[in-house]
Design brief:
mainly alpha, three-stranded antiparallel β-sheet
């Protein structure tokens, strides 16, 4: 009866595992995560700094085993989630700055000397909105405030003349 209750351990069976399907699935997941990280980096370019570099598993080229592929996939998933969080926070800041600009345009006297740049609201270029007194010191004493929009970056010709 004792012979019937004894079981062979699985290590003694020496069953070979076909890793090709698992490798293919992991490579597909890694490829999808790399594409997603690249698209997030392209979306964030110029607005916020994202770490898009991948850490090498080994110094020499070789075929990675399943554990190393899973580690690479998990690292990429963490990078993608960090990039999403960074972009979400930046979008929230840009939305808040757009709201500030809207309120500043409605009542410039409440936002004295406040400056909102185009980069603060996620637009390309060098322009800015600045709440300033109309007519200088007289306007400041009289409470005449306005929002002045800068024209943007200086022209290249002007910069060349300054360098001479």
């Amino acid at each position: 009866m004792a012979d019937l209750l004894e079981r062979d351990s699985f290590t003694e069976l020496h069953v070979g595992v076909d890793e090709s399907l698992a490798r293919a699935q992991l490579r597909r997941q890694i490829g999808r995560l790399e594409r997603e990280l690249a698209s997030l980096f392209a979306e964030a370019f110029g607005r916020v700094e994202l770490d898009h570099r991948l850490v090498a598993v080994a110094a020499e080229p070789r075929l990675l085993d399943l554990g190393e592929l899973e580690g690479l996939r998990d690292g990429l998933a963490a990078q993608v989630s960090d990039a999403r969080l960074t972009l979400f926070e930046r979008a929230r800041v840009e939305t808040d700055n757009r709201e500030l600009l809207r309120r500043m345009l409605e009542s410039p006297a409440e936002f004295r000397w406040v400056r909102v740049s185009r980069a603060d609201i996620g637009e390309p270029g060098c322009g800015a909105w600045h709440s300033r007194p109309r007519l200088g010191l007289i306007g400041m004493l009289m409470g005449w405030w306005r929002v002045k929009v800068s024209s943007g970056c200086p022209l290249a010709g002007r910069l060349a003349a300054v360098e001479r």
